[in-house]
Structure formats: C-alpha cells, structure tokens
Amino acid sequence: MKQWLAAEHINRLAADPVHCTRTKLNLEIDSRRPFVPEDYTQLYYTPVYASLSFEHRLRYNQLFGLRINEYIMMLEADLVERLVTPLLRRPHIAADLALAQAMTTMIEEERRHFSGFAALNRACRPDLYPLGKDRLFSCLPGWTKAMFWIVGALAGRLSFALWYLMAMEESSMALARDMSRRPETETLGLLDPAFVAVHREHMKDESRHLHIDGRMIESSIGSGIRAERVLNAWLFQSMLRGITRLTRSGSGVMVIHQLVRDMPELASREEEMVQAVLKLTNCRPFQESLFNRRIMPKTFSVFDDTPELARLGEKMIGYDRR
C-alpha cells in the first residue's frame, strides 16, 4: 500500500535523533493542573461528572491520566514484544532485512517508552508508584492475561492482534495531538506542561511505528490465504468484546476506588460512580470515543480495505465503514 513508508526510510528516520522520542525530560509536575483532556476520561460521559466539585474532577482527571499512561505501558510491555518477536521468525519477514531491522528497533523503543511513562507516573504520584512498583491500574485480570497469552501463542501464524496494536498506537498519537492543540480543558484549566511534553515526545516514535504496523499487517495477515484472513478477523472481533465491556474489576473502576481513597468524603458516592462507569458499556458516545475515524484514520483505512472486516461495525461501535 502506498500509504506506508518503505522500511529503509523508516530505519533512516529511526537513526535521526530529531525523529526519535526523548525520554530524559523535565518532570516537574504541577499538582494543580489536569493531565489529560476531560473527554479522554470515562466519568466525563456520565451525568455524575458534572455533579462533582472542581477538586474532585481535577483529582479524577489526574488519576485517569496515570491510568492512560499505564495502558500505554501495558501495550508496550505485554503486547508488542510477544506479538512482534514471533513475526520476526516468519521466513518472508526475516528475509526482508530492512523490515526486520525496523521491527527490532520498535521493540527496543517500546521498552524505553515503558520506562519513560513509569518515570512520569512516579513523578506525578510517588506515593502510588514507589520504586519497584510501576503499575496500579493495569494489573491484568485473568481474561486479559489469557488474551495476551493467546496472542503470543498464535502470533507466528495468526496475527489478528496487529489490528488492535495499530489502533492503540494511532490512538496514543491522537491523544498527544489533542493535548498540544487544546491545552485548555473544558472546566479544569490548562494541562500540565510536563505531562503534555512526555506524550508529545512519545508521538515521534509512534508515528514511525504506525508504518511498521502497516507493513507487518501486509506481510502477515494480508498475504495469508482466505481461510486464515477470515479466522484473523473473527479472532480480532472476539477480542474487542473484552476491550469495550466495562467491568467491576476493570481499570476504570479502580480509578474510582483510588479517587475515594484520596478523597474519603466521596465514599458515599462511590457506588454511584461505579454504576455510572459500568453503564458506559451501552453508551454510544463513550464507545465511539474509543474507536473512531478522527483519531484512527490510517487504522480505519486498513479496516476499510479488509473484506473480512465488513461487519466490524457490529462489534466496534465507532467504525463507519467506507
């Protein structure tokens, strides 16, 4: 496909520091500022959100920003390596030395991203992330561990999770752009500059990784026989069911529990907030915020060009096939 950069060009960009993510940044965090645009949080899509005080909404926003960082870290630590490494053993990919080099560099860069986001979260809340503890909201439930195990076990033959990887990487780029383009939130004031800077730097590597994702999809899913493509599509759509359904053990509810620990005066409203989040499983505006063409234009174009994903909109509410 013409939209993907040649692997040789990707490698040249990766060798140029101007196009690479810097991880050694000033992490002086202003605790009076929000971390992410409000519409990137879950409670924003519920009636409860507007009834919370400024201080409560601010703390919720900050905690949810930490949760977003953890999910980027989870993607990079738990999915990328176990998905990409088996692909490197495929003969036709191993024979493409430039693509193999780009994929290997991608793995190394994702490890650095994990460390960078872990440092950011620790700078924001050292009490929640003491040295040696990088996760609070992304301790994987059983179904997620099983899903990632299946992804790794099947990656050498069935690479359906590449579609999800591409979607999430493009989504993280959209967040960084939105943070830069609209630094003033709706009700909470200006975003924290250090938090924004880390995400803006992250986008440099991710802009290349998106092209590597496209090349990997072409070389694995796109080159498979029809039966394999159909099975990949079915597995991907099955995977989405666990991602879009919110549960009591999910990270969104964990954020609420931490909010109440931080601000005990909200204890009487804890269950109200939990129920509001759980109802988002059936909230179209929220579901559309997770996957939509504005934040994932390249990923959606890949979906459009995949006949086996013709009915994807039944599982991915925000997908408008073209």
Features:
Ribonucleotide Reductase, subunit A; 0% strand
Notes on the structure:
The chain is mainly α. It has one domain: Ribonucleotide Reductase, subunit A (Orthogonal Bundle). Helix content is 61%, strand content 0%. The protein is built from 13 helices and no strands. The chain has helices at residues 7-14, 47-51, 54-87, 91-94, 97-124, 142-154, 161-181, 193-219, 226-244, 251-262, 270-278, 284-290, 297-304. The longest helix is centred in the first third of the chain and has 34 residues, at 54-87. The mean pLDDT is 92.
Quick recap of the structure?
This protein is mostly helical and 322 residues long. It contains 13 helices and no strands. The chain has helices spanning 7-14, 47-51, 54-87, 91-94, 97-124, 142-154, 161-181, 193-219, 226-244, 251-262, 270-278, 284-290, 297-304.
Helix-strand blueprint:
Elements: H1 7-14, H2 47-51, H3 54-87, H4 91-94, H5 97-124, H6 142-154, H7 161-181, H8 193-219, H9 226-244, H10 251-262, H11 270-278, H12 284-290, H13 297-304
Helix pairs in contact: 1-5, 1-8, 3-5, 3-6, 3-7, 3-10, 5-8, 7-8, 7-13, 10-11
CATH secondary-structure class = Mainly Alpha
Mean of pLDDT: 92
Determine the CATH topology: Ribonucleotide Reductase, subunit A
Number of domains: 1
Q: Which homologous superfamily in CATH is the superfamily? A: Ribonucleotide Reductase, subunit A
